[in-house]
TrEMBL record, chains A, B:
Keywords: Hydrolase, Metal-binding, Secreted, Signal. Residues 199-497 form the Adenosine deaminase domain. It comes from Drosophila grimshawi. It is found in: Secreted. Its main location: secreted. This is Adenosine deaminase. Its EC number is 3.5.4.4. Belongs to the metallo-dependent hydrolases superfamily. Adenosine and AMP deaminases family. ADGF subfamily. NCBIfam families: adm_rel.
Length: 525, 525
């Protein structure tokens, strides 16, 4: 073995990456024998495998059987992709592949899978476009149009025609009259595009994408800030999420004041109460649903005085609704706002029991003040970080996040839609997986991407971002993470985990029982 | 300070990332005071800065002055990009931005900068398209066309019409007759596209891009494997590289046998001799040019027997030309070939003095056998790794690469052209910079991307991949790396460094002397 390396096969499991690196650093690998090379290779591959997210999970014998089915579907789709990358869904703009995805046996299986919770969902972008269109049939709904009635800008419920016009050449019209005028089919078609990002499918600039996103939020504002509609919307959101295998939701909400038909405004507490009522109602109707919480999330584009008011408001609401308003965050395009450090002194005033779940690192402008938000999110004591897209450019932050057990909320489709990333195979979450950094998968604004509440994001992560051999262990770890890193009080987490486990085991049984059918469908593809 | 963290300002420099991470891990950051937060922030930012590639460099007072100019240009272009990402060149497909880049004062300055060496250049894709077109005027040149003379497939020098036809409906015609027939302008226009990747500017599949790349190599083969033309081509390649601020080149070459006008083949030694003669000639003509070396690089799509022959051939050539044929590599699309591990036993037979400079990790198929090539490249003892694009998915490999001082040959434009990456701001080299992993910038096949030998790659790395504040220290480190990690014998490295330093200092002086002019041009942009 001369100047090679002496390693006995059984010692593999005792190695850590550091020890190995030091050992190898001393040696001249060009002088090692083929046998040394093979042993070292085995060690490195083993260390890699055990260091990857999900490998702490032990599968039951049932899960092993189900895993075999899942991996058959995954491997087939993966290998087809290697043969012809143009056919690999996670290599492309997802809105162009929605139809193809619906035909994927793997996607169908993941859709049925109990995925735990969604920890990052923005209040006004949770429901499907179809449901939003239904809401526009409500009575007393006016719409402000521009471009001779061709562009919808704002909705508003009112007994009489609203007078305030925010858009040049804007004109208020009753929705039902407009429907008669344009024809129902045409109007539905128009809304089908206007209420999501589909029109900006070709956009290549993050600013253009954000502008489109904000136009949709503006349009929806008057529709959703009307109490009876919001109650219906939020209940339906929980229904859609639940149907997609989600049992727990944390909603980022600006908690704005709602308005009445006469134009008067309600106190913000009334807003929170509607959430509370609908969550209660949904839990009664669906005993397997765990819970929903609110993370108070005003816009980051604020002055320090405004921030002080937000912090105060959050403190008040948390006192009044301690089990519901549990956290604080700032939303809106990070690149356009002030850095978190600007607001540090205000954020320090937030009581300890209100968790910080801060958006940070949703940028690819490396080394800017905004990029540094990742450092601030950690040092301000965030429990989770929203997106954290830039984290691989900050090794020290990665180390801290791991040590402090801060979970990253990975929202891959959102990143693509807002022009941070293109091909999912290059998404930085792969590096999180490789480094075993805790993370959860979320969807952010699924309503705007025409995707399901969570399944599409799970699919692109599992097939496109995770390693080829990531299997049911990975899916189980990621699902469990969504409860582990949730804002549920510790004492409620075991209850939550039990509710998830019941559904999980049912799903595993379903996979086993339908094995032959699933495999036959897969063979046809 | 209660449960906060006690850190005295002066201790910042004593911290390592690990120590900090452990210290912070013990504390509750939500309980730290605003003063603690600010101190910690300073420490983390300082550690980040000092941990980033290039921060070991001390600038001279002249360099500090030049740096001010460079950073003015960079900051202006960067900030414009933040304002309007559609204007930010490194956010886009580079072939669509070549014109815009030519107008960038930063690009112009980098073009003039002495950049050291190019350590990864493929022999047949070094010269500009314009020069290639010139070569097609040589006497006795035949071209095999298909599609009724509309597609050029193969070139061949011959006294008489070649008889071997490899393409269906292929037809050999004399180039000069074809030129008369189509008209010179039309033919130039045709070749202007056929000899580079421009026609596949819209390609979105790696396989389609590689197919196009290989079609160009096939077309060029008969043109360049003819000794007098190759001599002219290679001399001109050195000239173009030298004019772009490159003083040293390592060429990946298959070292195929050349052919004569009568169709006979020369021994491979004759091929090497032409390199040797032209390098000598170029050094005589340009005393500031350091040297050029060959890395013998057959195709990776080979059987084990073929590989054994390649290893033998490399050993023979290295014995005959010890100062010229210094290394071994395998080329061709990694995703399509066998993994390196397949050839390990053959590669082990290569004498130690022949360095391994292995392509590895030029893939985004995470977790495949090909993706594992990164592990093999390290364990086989590679001195440098070509591309290493997938390395951020292999933290243990990153650690080993750093400890073993293996440099990654980053070829950003090549990665984009071959459909690995899109937006340069997401290129994994940013993570290499953040982790201070040694790397060099190379161009690979600049001829095929219509880019300069190295300046375009430097520009996208400096502006698009490196952090906003990366400055002349970074550029100097990267330039020096290209000699430090070269295959030059240690005793020649100081000579090489001196030759580079002379040009570097001249360039710094040039920047200072032309400061006002450069700044005025920048103000106009």
């Amino acid at each position: 073995m001369a100047q090679g390396i002496g390693i006995c096969g059984q010692t593999i499991r005792c190695f850590t990456g550091n020890a190995l690196s030091e050992l190898i650093g001393q040696s001249n690998l060009r002088k090692s024998t083929p046998a040394d090379y093979r042993k070292l290779r085995e060690i490195v591959c083993t260390l890699e495998r055990f260091g990857t997210l999900g490998n702490d999970i032990q599968l039951t014998s049932n899960e092993i059987e189900a895993n075999h089915v899942i991996m058959c579907l995954k491997t087939k789709e993966y290998n087809k992709g290697i043969q012809d990358p143009s056919q690999f869904v996670p290599g492309h703009q997802i809105m162009r592949r929605l139809k193809k995805m619906k035909e994927s046996p793997l996607f169908l299986l993941l859709s049925k899978m109990p995925k735990g919770g969604v920890l990052k969902a923005h209040a006004h972008s949770m429901c499907s476009t179809d449901f939003l269109i239904k809401l526009t049939y409500a009575k007393n709904l006016w719409v402000c149009t521009t471009d001779n009635g061709c562009k919808f800008r704002q909705f508003r419920f009112s007994k009489v025609k609203p007078t305030r016009i925010q858009y040049e050449e804007g004109e208020w019209q009753l929705m039902e009259q407009l429907r008669d005028y344009h024809g129902e089919a045409n109007l539905r078609k128009y809304l089908k595009n206007a209420l999501n990002m589909y029109p900006s499918i070709r956009t290549t600039s993050s600013i253009a994408a954000w502008n489109q996103l904000e136009r949709i939020f503006d349009l929806l504002d008057g529709l959703l800030r009307y109490p009876p509609v919001w109650a219906e919307y939020f209940y339906n959101a929980l229904k859609e999420f639940h149907a997609d295998g989600v049992q727990y939701v944390e909603v980022r909400s600006k908690l704005q004041r709602f308005y009445c038909l006469d134009g008067s405004k309600l106190p913000v507490q009334e807003t929170v109460k509607i959430y509370q009522e609908q969550i209660g109602r949904f839990q009664t109707d669906n005993p397997d649903f765990i819970d929903a919480k609110i993370i108070y999330s005003p816009l980051r584009h604020a002055t320090i005085d405004q921030m002080a008011k937000y912090v105060k408001m959050c403190t008040i609401l948390n006192k009044e609704f301690p089990d519901l308003v549990i956290g604080f965050d700032l939303v809106g395009q990070e690149d356009r706002g002030d850095p978190l450090s600007q607001f540090a002194s205000e954020l320090h005033k937030l009581p300890d029991n209100i968790n910080l779940y801060l958006h940070a690192g949703q940028t690819n402008w490396y080394g800017t003040r905004i990029d540094e938000n990742l450092i601030d999110a950690v040092l301000l004591g965030a429990k989770r970080i929203g997106h954290g897209y830039a984290i691989t450019k900050h090794p020290l932050v990665m180390e801290l996040v791991k040590q402090l057990n801060i979970a990253i909320e990975v929202c891959p489709i959102c990143n693509q839609m807002l022009q941070l990333s293109a091909d999912y195979r290059n998404h930085p979450a792969a590096t999180l997986i490789a480094n075993n950094i805790p993370f959860v998968i979320s969807s952010g604004n699924p309503s705007f991407w025409r995707t399901s509440p969570l399944s599409h994001d799970f699919y692109v992560v599992f097939l496109g971002i995770a390693p080829m051999n990531a299997d049911l262990k990975f899916l189980k770890r990621i699902s469990k993470n969504s409860l582990k890193y949730s804002g549920l009080p510790d004492e409620q987490k075991s209850m939550a985990m039990s509710k998830w486990k019941i559904k999980w085991e049912k799903w595993v049984d379903y996979v086993i029982k339908n094995k032959d059918k699933i495999m036959a469908q897969n063979a046809e593809k």
